[in-house]
Amino acid sequence: MVEIKACIFDLDGVVVDTAKYHYLAWRKLARELGFEFSEQHNERLKGVSRMRSLEILLEVGGLSFPKDEMEKMAAKKNGWYLEYIMQMTPKEILPGAKELLEELRRNGIKLALGSASKNTPVILDKIKLTKHFDAIADGNSVTAAKPAPDIFLKGAELLNVNPSFCVVFEDAEAGIEAAINAGMRTVGIGSKDILSKADFVVPNLKGFSYNTLLSIFNK
Ligand code: BG6
Ligand code: MG
Question: Which of 7, 39, 131, 189 is spaced 20 to 30 A from 68 at the CA atom?
């Protein structure tokens, strides 16, 4: 039996579907640079940091630029991305996410957000979920990207809970690996083929309850 004291949620792809906005902004940059960036290519950017995403994009386009140029490109992409996320509303919270957060809190489970995104505070504000979390570990507080365990370890530290009592909800393979590297339990959100290392995989959070959590881990 594993006692669960805290849950740590990834943001993009678990609480909100921001991948579509990341994609539109990266595609705009690719077009400016003279090549097409497909949705399939975009799959490779999930869970990956902003600069690493740009490296992958440039690799797809067969281009390379000095570091300072890359910084400018990443900033430009983020400007376009911000235009999208500034329009977000609570309607964009993925099915089941808010209900699960509220139910977990009612049952005494501590809650953290663990995301690579530096835009985490803006997004949480727009979808009005900031107060649903007891702690936030994001790309502003941690530099080592997933699959490094740092973001999730930071979340556990802020909650004052030992990593072995934490369950991480993640949609990216690198995120599941990060959680395993942190010594935490995992629930993968998405496909079993991609998230095969997770303890348990569900297609989304719809219908996932406190009891589901207990039935998976408290046995
Ligand atoms: C992750 C996304 O959550 O955050 C990645 O899955 C993204 O696609 C990364 O690149 C960094 O996001 P941001 O908002 O700091 O550019
Ligand atoms: Mg994600």
Answer: 39
Q: What is the domain partition of the chain in residue ranges? A: 6-17+92-217, 19-85
Give residue for tokens 């490296």: 55
Give pLDDT < 70 ranges for the chain: 219
pTM: 0.95
Question: Which residue is closest in CA terms to ligand 1's atom 8?
Answer: 46
Pocket test for ligand 1, best of 23, 50, 76, 171 (most atoms within 8 A of CB): 50
Report the 3 state secondary structure along 115-146: CCCCCHHHHHHHCCCHHHCCEEECCCCCCCCC
- Asked if 12 is an active-site residue, the reply is yes
Q: Please report, rounded to a whole number, the percentage of residues in the chain having pLDDT higher than 70.
A: 99
**CATH number belonging to domain 6-17+92-217:** 3.40.50.1000
Q: Does domain 19-85 have CATH number 1.10.150.240?
A: yes
